[in-house]
Design a protein that fits this description.
The complex is a heterodimer of chains A (221) and B (222). Chain A has 221 residues and is an all-alpha fold. Helix content of chain A is 77%, strand content 0%. Classes of the chains: A mainly alpha (221), B mainly alpha (222).
Chain lengths: 221, 222
C-alpha cells in the first residue's frame, strides 16, 4: 500500500512512536515505585534516611535530565556496568521523574488531615498500619492528577532517548530527515504524533481532577 | 575509568566558556518568554472572537509536545521560509516560544488569584482601568508569580543542554566535544553535572526562601 505524499512517512514514524510508548510505560513504572520509596523516606523518623532521600531529590532535580542520561550511558561502562540503551533510558528517565514524583507523594501525605493520624494512634494502630490503611488510601486520591501531569512530562522527556541511540519517535524523525530531506513534513508529523499521544492523557487528568474533587475531604487550614 | 583531577582542571575553562553561552541562552529565552507569555495571557483574556481559542491552541500545542522536537522544527524549518538566524538566536527563539506557553498560564493564574471583590471595590471607588491594574490588581497578582517564574527560570536553565543538538556550543555541547576528542567521559560530564547543581540548587533555595517569606497563599492544587 502506498500513502499519499506527506503520510508516506508515517509507517516509519509510527514504529518509533511504539518505542516511545514502551519507554514511557516502563520508565513510568520505575518512577512510580521510586516516587513512593523516596517520598516516604523523606518523611522517615530516621534522620540519615531523610538526608539520603533529600540528597537524591536535590541532585536529580538540580541537574539536567539529558546530562543524567549521558552520565549513565557513557560513564557507567567505564566502571564495568554496561547497560543497553533501552535499560539506560528506562532507568535514567524513571529515576529523574521519581525525584518530582516523590514530592507529589510527600505533599499528598502531608495533605491528609492530621486528625487522621491521631485517630489511628487512638485506635492503637502501628504507624505502618496507619499509613497503609488510613493515610495512603486518602493520599492516593490527591496524587492522581499530579501523577497524570507527570506522565505527560515523561512522554515528552522520552524524546531525549533519541540522543542515546534509542530508535524512538524523535530518532525515527531524524533518520527520515536524513534520508528524505523533507524536514518540515517530518518534524510537523512528529509533533502531531506527540500531540495525539499527550492530549488524551491531559484530558484524562482533567476528568480525574473534576471527579476526585467531589470526594475531597474538607481541608483544614 | 578514574576521575583525573588534572585533566578536569585542564578542561574547566572550556566548560566555563560554554557556561557563559548557557547563561546567555537562559536569560535570552526567559526575556522572550516573559514577553511572549504576556501577549498570550492577554490574548486569552481578550474579547475578540478567535483570539482566545488561537492562544489556547498554541499553549496546548507547546505544552504537549517535546521541546527537543520543537527546537528541531525551528532549526530546520524556519530557514525554509527564509528566516535564518545564527544558531544561538534560533535556540533562544525556540526556548522562548516554548516557555511563553507556560508563563502565560502563570500570569493568568496570578491575575485570577486576585479576589473578584478587589475588582468590584475598585469600580465602586470609581478608579480608572489603568489605576485598577496598577494600584490594585498587579500589586497583589505579581508577588505570588515570582517564585513560580523563578522555578521556570531554573527549568529553562536545565533545558539548555538540548541546544547542543542544534549546534549551539553551550556547556553540554562543550562537554560533548571534549568527550568526543579525548574519549574521556567521566570528567566533562561529572563537571557539568556539578556546575549545573552549583547554579540551580542555590537558585531553588532562593525561590523557596522567597516563597516562605512572602507567605504566598497559593491554591494547593498542582
Amino acid at each position: 500500500m502506498t500513502w499519499p505524499h506527506p503520510f508516506d512517512l508515517l509507517p516509519v514514524l509510527l514504529q518509533g512512536a511504539r518505542v516511545t510508548l514502551e519507554v514511557t510505560l516502563m520508565a513510568a513504572s520505575v518512577a512510580l515505585v521510586m516516587s513512593f520509596v523516596v517520598g516516604l523516606a523523606r518523611m522517615a523518623p530516621l534522620r540519615p534516611v531523610r538526608f539520603v532521600a533529600t540528597v537524591y531529590v536535590e541532585i536529580l532535580r538540580g541537574t539536567s535530565a539529558l546530562v543524567q542520561l549521558f552520565y549513565l550511558f557513557f560513564i557507567l561502562p567505564g566502571f564495568g556496568i554496561r547497560l543497553d540503551p533501552m535499560t539506560t533510558a528506562v532507568i535514567g528517565l524513571g529515576l529523574n521523574l521519581s525525584a518530582y514524583g516523590s514530592e507529589i507523594v510527600r505533599a499528598a501525605v502531608r495533605h491528609v488531615d492530621h486528625g487522621q493520624w491521631e485517630a489511628s494512634v487512638a485506635l492503637s494502630m502501628s504507624p505502618a498500619l496507619a499509613l497503609r490503611r488510613v493515610i495512603l488510601p486518602q493520599a492516593l486520591l490527591a496524587m492522581m492528577p499530579p501523577f497524570g501531569n507527570l506522565l505527560i512530562e515523561l512522554l515528552k522527556a522520552t524524546s531525549l532517548v533519541s540522543l542515546i541511540t534509542l530508535t524512538d519517535l524523535t530518532f525515527a524523525g531524524s533518520t527520515m530527515v536524513a534520508s528524505t530531506g523533507r524536514a518540515a513534513q517530518v518534524w510537523g508529523l512528529v509533533l502531531l504524533i506527540y500531540l495525539i499521544m499527550a492530549l488524551p492523557l491531559g484530558w484524562l487528568v482533567r476528568r480525574l481532577e473534576a471527579r476526585l474533587s467531589v470526594y475531597r475531604l474538607p481541608v483544614k487550614t | 575509568m578514574q576521575f583525573d583531577p588534572h585533566f578536569a582542571l585542564e578542561i574547566l575553562p572550556a566548560l566555563l566558556r560554554g557556561a557563559i553561552i548557557t547563561i546567555e541562552a537562559t536569560f535570552g529565552g526567559m526575556a522572550l518568554a516573559l514577553v511572549g507569555g504576556l501577549i498570550l495571557a492577554m490574548g486569552r483574556m481578550s474579547r475578540a472572537p478567535v483570539v482566545p481559542t488561537l492562544c489556547l491552541g498554541y499553549i496546548q500545542f507547546m505544552r504537549n509536545t517535546p521541546l527537543l522536537v520543537q527546537l528541531y522544527f525551528v532549526f530546520y524549518v524556519l530557514p525554509l521560509f527564509g528566516l535564518t538566524f545564527n544558531a544561538l538566536a534560533t535556540g533562544i527563539v525556540g526556548l522562548g516560544l516554548n516557555y511563553s506557553a507556560y508563563i502565560a498560564e502563570v500570569y493568568r493564574a496570578g491575575i485570577d488569584g486576585v479576589p473578584a471583590g478587589q475588582w468590584e471595590a475598585a469600580i465602586a471607588l470609581d478608579m480608572s482601568p489603568r489605576h485598577t491594574w496598577s494600584r490594585i490588581v498587579l500589586p497583589q497578582a505579581v508577588p505570588p508569580m515570582i517564585p513560580v517564574l523563578g522555578n521556570y527560570l531554573i527549568g529553562m536553565f536545565k533545558d539548555t543542554p538540548l541546544l547542543a543538538t542544534i549546534t549551539i556550543p553551550e556547556m553540554f555541547g562543550a562537554a560533548e566535544q571534549i568527550a568526543g576528542v579525548t574519549y574521556r567521559y567521566n570528567e566533562p560530564y561529572t563537571l557539568i553535572g556539578l556546575i549545573f547543581l552549583a547554579m540551580s540548587y542555590p537558585a531553588s533555595l532562593a525561590v523557596r526562601h522567597f516563597e516562605a517569606k512572602t507567605g504566598t497563599q497559593r491554591s494547593r492544587s498542582t
